[in-house]
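User: Hey, my collaborator sent me this sequence without any context and asked if I could get a structure. I don't really work with proteins. Can you help?
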Amino acid sequence: MEEMVGDLPKCRAVFERWMEWLPDDNGWLSYVRFESRCGQWDKARSVMERYANEYPCAKAFLKFAKWSEYEAKDIALARKVYESALVELEPEESRQARVFKQFTSFEERQGEYERARVIYKHA
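Assistant: No problem. I've predicted the 3D structure and written it out in structure-token form, which is a compact way to encode the shape of the chain:
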């Protein structure tokens, strides 16, 4: 409602209170979409970082990486998130086939075929 009437600070306050309850993925992604609609890409990135830190799992990192690539159009950030997923996650999480598959697909989309080959070798 606050967003509809243009009271963005109150809307942010509502989202921040909601984030204290540690909602599921949809809650965090709703907050990110709100900040994206407002053109606040740095705030949206900050929310995505908090989401990945609160839920350190492959799913969160992969959503963050996809958001970075497609929504924020920040290729360097997306690459950093994929690399962080391999380093920061527990071995059973980071060694999932989907992590490697999405990382290699990302590198192929960027035309970085040699990087994709190296990732395939480590998979």
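In plain terms: DSSP finds eight helices and no strands in the chain. You can pass these tokens on to your collaborator as they are.
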